[in-house]
Specification:
Elements (H helix, E strand, L loop, with lengths): L1 E5 L13 E5 H19 L1 H4 L3 H22 L9 E3 L5 E3 L9 H18 L3 H13 L3 H18 L2 H18 L6 H15 L8 H10 L3 H26 L8 H11 L11 H19 L12 H14 L6 H7 L2 H19 L2 H13 L5 H14 L4 H13 L8 H12 L9 H12 L6 H26 L1
Antiparallel strand pairs: 1-2, 3-4
Helix pairs in contact: 1-3, 3-15, 4-9, 4-13, 5-6, 5-7, 6-7, 6-8, 6-10, 7-8, 7-20, 8-10, 8-20, 9-18, 9-19, 10-21, 12-13, 15-18, 16-18, 17-19, 17-21, 18-19, 19-21
Amino acid sequence: MIHAIPIILATGESAAGVAEHAVPGWITALFTFILVGMIAALALEEKIHAKKSIIVGTASGLCLILACMISAWADVPLLPFGEVVLPNGHTISMPVYIPGIDWSVITVILGASLFVEVASRSGIFSWLAIRLTKQSGGDPWLLLVYYGLLTVLFSAVLNNVTAMIIIGSLTSVSLHKLKRQDLMLGFLLVEGLLTNVGGLLTLISSVPNIIVGKTAGISFARFFLIAAPYVAVSTIATLLLGRWRFAISSLKSEAERETAKVLVSGFDENESVPDHHFFWIAVVVLVAFIATLAGQSALPWNLDKLGMGFIALFFAGIMLLAYKNEVGKYYSLVDWDLLAFFAGLFVVIYVMEQAMVLDLIGEGIAVMLSLPEPASSGSLLFSSSLASSVTDNIPLAAMLAKILSGMELTSGSPLWWCVIFGANLGGNITPIGSASTVVAMTIIHKQKIPLSFGRFVVMALPFAAMQIILATAYVALFL
């Protein structure tokens, strides 16, 4: 089997003037094998005791070496060697792997991570969590509703892991103080599942959102407007199912309510605020950050061309001004492993595209999409959910986004949302499906609650199935 692949030279020659080169089937098969091996290693990350960046970095290095060797030996140009021509006519040399990295995604993650890390030091998120705890009066059902809504909100503006750590820790303290440890498993499980629902709310809530949203050309505001109705319905449904499944009910008598209210009144939200002046600065800058992201496409004087990555880095810089003499500690808190993972992943996908591996996967997806609606979109959403439940949803989202981009879809196509919903919600099926469910399991085990892999799947599956069915219906009926 021979595939045809158009190669665009980096010397500025137009695509129309470049002849098509043949990629033999054995080359596609070889790189497919490498891709499968990389995904399997990512799924077994804990077992092989290797960081994501090392796994993907090794795969990207192997891909580049093989691509160079094959280009020399088999006369099959898999990499666009040459110089890059700048708008002023100046030419510069650039490593072959640099064009393959999506730097807009890298800068969004770096900027947003720094911003959230500094903003959280103001105590704004802990203040809000403790305030709502007191507002609930210690009533278990109200507490679940407040913590559930807060989980969704924190997952939307922070990241899923940070949201689960904050809410999970507060849940443990609150339920111990209320002497309701019997509800601990239900609370932590529901909160863990809601992190992935909240991760759907905005374009920067989760990494799959950033990857697919940027590829599809979906703006921050439009992403929110489309995702918000589903997130609202799914959150309510998850809370109600959690109430029924774990028998979390409201307090019945006035005496019970008074006792619980006294117990939670001991919380002091101001203890988490080290500096009230900086607290209010963080509130104002956070609102400005979200507003600027939402209106990024409407910025004047070509500022919209700078992109969301620049906005994230700019606002991170503003927040860092408050700690200008100790920025090193915030740089050290950035997840550099994640950024290195992304750089390597983009290189792998770049080579896979040249070796026609993505075309091969795309052929399978094309068969799936040839089904009549809503079966085609439903099968894509379901299959991406199933895949993300057993392996990392980031490479899954990146590959599917790249494949869909080759199908010349509009930004309004519901297929983009099938991948977004599937990649996020699939993480709720198993305890290794997302980082936040791993954190939830860790907190559950710290509370001396026995919960095996199989029992987690049994308990979480009704929630995940309901969320995926709601997403499938939402895509079919409203997108």
